[in-house]
């Protein structure tokens, strides 16, 4: 069986990699289709697992038809699936858990099958899109963490102090808190290791140049390690950190699934088009899941609240534990390390 994975952006890879490993072990013929040249380190890492293709977006449809795969797996709502469905089966492993409305809107695309995390979310999606097929599998990205195969960050190798508590700051690209952090904030947290894992789009898009300037400034502090663009997986950072700081990002749901404390920052830097009476545009980007962030961890509305929130959560890591456990089941589904196996088995049994 021939299965191709469409990697429009590098941050789709952590969702695909565990599935690729399962399929490789079962003898499937695999291909990874990048829309642009990936970093050499990633290409080298993937070469033993699958054939690598670099295909311009304008040529994707003709390439996929010529390849004649049994399946094409996407990480986003790919409209080209409409042209492909008569040639192959198409499936979606969405590159996140929400809370943006795109989590639900993704199934308005013509992709035929979608793997979802929980029965709760499957029920919601099935009501919205009764003609689509949804398969409950769990969240593939977390499997390496659950199974103990994910790497961890060697703090000493990164110049950090292993005995210090470790904070993970993993901001999204927009709307983000990045620009509202003080330039000297690592100095104010000198008693902590700080791992900074930006969103991939913060590192490559010209619109986020100021964010990159701040990252480059912060990485000069002795207690900070800044992830490189090649370090696409958040898993080693989550495995290493004691606490995570982000905005209303699906990464917080991922960290929550490890039953570790999270801090949700609401001191966002908004574009002019989202100010005042135009704030409805921001709300439009968010789904009803936005409300869950109020329950899974400490919510703060200004940077000045961050230090005490960090201290309180590290002293009392079971704060919000009951809520976290409740929403792990509802949002993330079964965290048993078997999600990728369930995806692989479905693909192989439905050629």
From TrEMBL:
The keyword Transferase applies. Coiled coil: none annotated. It comes from the Bacteria. Keywords: Transferase. GO terms for cellular component: membrane. One of its GO terms (molecular function) is CDP-glycerol glycerophosphotransferase activity. This is CDP-glycerol--poly(Glycerophosphate) glycerophosphotransferase. It comes from Kangiella profundi.
């Amino acid at each position: 069986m021939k299965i191709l994975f469409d990697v429009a952006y590098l941050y789709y890879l952590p969702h695909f990699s565990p599935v690729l490993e399962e399929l490789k072990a079962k003898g499937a013929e695999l291909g990874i289709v990048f829309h642009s040249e990936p970093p050499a380190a990633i290409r080298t890492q993937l070469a033993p697992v699958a054939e690598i293709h670099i295909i311009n977006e304008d040529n994707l449809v003709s390439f996929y038809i010529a390849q004649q795969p049994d399946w094409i797996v996407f990480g986003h709502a790919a409209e080209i699936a409409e042209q492909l469905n008569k040639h192959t089966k198409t499936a979606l492993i969405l590159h996140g858990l929400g809370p943006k409305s795109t989590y639900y809107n993704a199934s308005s695309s013509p992709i035929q099958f979608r793997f979802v995390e929980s029965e709760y979310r499957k029920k919601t999606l099935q009501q919205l899109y009764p003609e689509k097929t949804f398969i409950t599998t769990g969240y593939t990205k977390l499997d390496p963490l659950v199974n103990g195969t994910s790497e961890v960050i060697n703090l000493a190798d990164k110049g950090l102090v292993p005995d210090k508590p470790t904070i993970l700051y993993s901001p999204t690209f927009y709307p983000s808190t990045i620009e509202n952090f003080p330039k000297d904030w690592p100095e104010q947290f000198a008693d902590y290791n700080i791992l900074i894992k930006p969103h991939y789009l913060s590192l490559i898009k010209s619109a986020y140049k100021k964010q990159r300037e701040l990252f480059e400034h912060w990485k000069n502090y002795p207690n900070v390690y800044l992830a490189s663009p090649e370090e696409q997986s958040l898993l080693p950072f989550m495995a290493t950190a004691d606490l995570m700081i982000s905005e209303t990002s699906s990464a917080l749901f991922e960290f929550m699934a490890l039953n570790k404390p999270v801090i949700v920052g609401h001191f966002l830097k908004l574009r002019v088009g989202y100010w005042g009476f135009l704030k409805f545009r921001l709300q439009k980007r968010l789904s009803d899941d936005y409300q869950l962030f109020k329950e899974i961890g400490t919510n703060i509305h200004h940077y000045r609240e961050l230090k005490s929130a960090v201290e309180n959560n590290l002293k009392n890591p079971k704060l919000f534990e009951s809520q976290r456990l409740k929403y792990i089941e509802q949002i993330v589904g079964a965290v048993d390390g078997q999600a990728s196996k369930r995806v692989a088995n479905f693909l192989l049994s439905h050629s």
